[in-house]
């Protein structure tokens, strides 16, 4: 009886393996909505003092080289990036925050950033502050 059971198990496993070799594997990958790229404009021209900024993994790093010769983007001009839906981070030397590009290509970010960041629901991210200010947006006394 035990040899019959082993025979049946081997036949079952062999049949499954044979079936798996005949059926073509499904093409894996994210749905098309997740791979569509959207034009997102980053406008940090209001930052004072002027500086450099990055979106890690998308733009040149602000930490990679000499400031005089670096390829990182300066806050003196806005830049258009091509981004897929997902989570990203804007970063400058004194201010960084996460933001999301949704499936419709619109920007989302925390409401707590409203004092320094504009553009929720649009395709333009506007950064007005060089850093976030505590206590209802009031600058520290030493900051000028």
Structure description:
The longest helix has 21 residues, at 2-22. The model has no long low-confidence stretch (mean pLDDT 81). The protein is elongated and about 80 Å long. Helices cover 20% and strands 26% of the residues. It is an alpha+beta fold and 144 residues long. 15% of the residues are buried. Strand 5 (86-92) and strand 6 form a beta hairpin. The protein has one domain (32-137): Immunoglobulin-like (Sandwich), CATH 2.60.40.
The number of distinct structural domains comes to 1
Number of strands: 9
How much strand content do the residues show? 25-35%
Average pLDDT value? 81
Radius of gyration: 26 Å
- Low confidence ranges: none
The order of strands across the largest sheet is 3-2-5-6-7
Helix/strand-derived category reads alpha+beta
The number of helices is: 3
Overall 3D shape: elongated
At the fold tier of CATH, the topology name is Immunoglobulin-like
Q: Please trace the helix and strand order, writing H or E for each element.
A: HHEEEEEEEEEH
Second CATH tier, the architecture: Sandwich
Q: Summarize the main sheet.
A: 5 strands, antiparallel
What gap, in angstroms, lies between the N and C termini? 89 Å
Helix content: 10-25%
Instruction: Report the top-level CATH class.
Output: Mainly Beta
């Amino acid at each position: 009886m035990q040899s019959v059971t082993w025979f049946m198990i081997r036949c079952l496993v062999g049949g499954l393996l044979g079936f798996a070799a005949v059926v073509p594997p499904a093409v894996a990958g994210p749905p098309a909505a997740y791979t569509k790229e959207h034009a997102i404009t980053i406008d940090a021209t209001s930052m004072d003092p002027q500086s450099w900024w990055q979106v890690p993994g998308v733009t040149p790093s602000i930490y990679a080289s000499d400031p005089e010769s670096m390829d990182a983007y300066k806050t003196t001009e806005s830049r258009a990036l091509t981004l897929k839906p997902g989570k990203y981070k804007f970063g400058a030397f004194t201010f960084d925050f996460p933001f999301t590009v949704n499936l419709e290509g619109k920007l989302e970010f925390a409401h707590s950033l409203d004092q320094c960041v504009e553009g929720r629901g649009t395709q333009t991210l506007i950064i007005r502050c060089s850093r976030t200010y505590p206590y209802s947006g009031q600058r520290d006394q030493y900051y000028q």
